[in-house]
Amino acid sequence: MLLYESPVSGNCYKVRLLLAHLGLPYERRTLDVVDRSDRPEVLGGLNPALRVPTLVLDDGRSLGESGAILWYFGEGSRFVPTDRFERAQMLQWMFFEQYDHEPAIAVVRFWLAYSGNPEAFEDRRTERTAAGYRVLAAMNSHLVGRSWFVGDAMSLADIVLYAYTHVADEGGFDLTLYDAINAWLARVAAEPAHVTIDA
Amino acid sequence: MLLYESPVSGNCYKVRLLLAHLGLPYERRTLDVVDRSDRPEVLGGLNPALRVPTLVLDDGRSLGESGAILWYFGEGSRFVPTDRFERAQMLQWMFFEQYDHEPAIAVVRFWLAYSGNPEAFEDRRTERTAAGYRVLAAMNSHLVGRSWFVGDAMSLADIVLYAYTHVADEGGFDLTLYDAINAWLARVAAEPAHVTIDA
Fold this sequence. Notes:
The structure is a homodimer.
Chain A: E1 2-5, H1 10-22, E2 27-30, H2 39-43, E3 54-56, E4 62-64, H3 66-74, H4 84-114, H5 122-143, H6 156-165, H7 179-189
Parallel strand pairs in A: 1-2
Antiparallel strand pairs in A: 1-3, 3-4
């Protein structure tokens, strides 16, 4: 199968991290995350959002949205809880990540570290940074006394939240005070078969 | 069970619409969507995002994020496909709705119709409106030749996309040219047990 992706995108890293844990082979095709002019040509018909990650199965069927791709491969694995309520809790954190976490922490990181033009976003950075810190505080509170976001095992919730949290410093976020987050980041990275974002 | 919600929120309507289809009884508690000062007190410990909808089960366990609540009740019902790939496609549209559709169409609708202060958002409205029209165009293209977003039956994907699309006119969006969207909106509303957003 083929994964259209970017090496710096946390959304793409989520998919690569899960596929590494599951030991599934795939081909990578890198798209530019700054110059997106080729997206309609390359991803048209494959993903309505014209974004990476986009996955194409060997039979030609395609999927967009990191959360949906993770679900497709995660179902039935140790990364999706067998309990119905815990599955819903996992999805709660996955939707929270896409609605609150990514549009703050990933966006500020992109502006500062990858856009090539951080000045252009300066007027929106204060508000997005404050939103990012609210997300980090909510994560840290939840993690106090817990090893993983849902239940007693690592799940897709941990994978999606790890992706942009562990590189939040590239967006100027200071994680020093978030002890529970730091312990959890180390826990995720210590799992067998873990791969880094630049692998 | 208890649903913290708002009568004008499409995210809350998604939950009410599914529960109506499933015939499940629940209690409603309305929170203000403009003055959110009571949110930490009311929703603290129930939902890390401090947003509606928040669901509290009879045993006290709680869930946030409309997509996660829908999944919890939808699993095993006719609104979640039995095919693994179709389940992932459904989640693709659900994540697309929360990442692309809601932050454009729902946000502009809120600014214009419910914020009480539309002028304050005037500088961001043009960009958000353009983003909304890109979403509508992607939805319309996908629906040409299809009755439902995924497979051959109504699913959670249709419920989440219906919620803010059918009131997009309150955000100034003109749906006239989107024939496939209009036929699909009528199809959703014609389902037995359908309820309106103001029900």
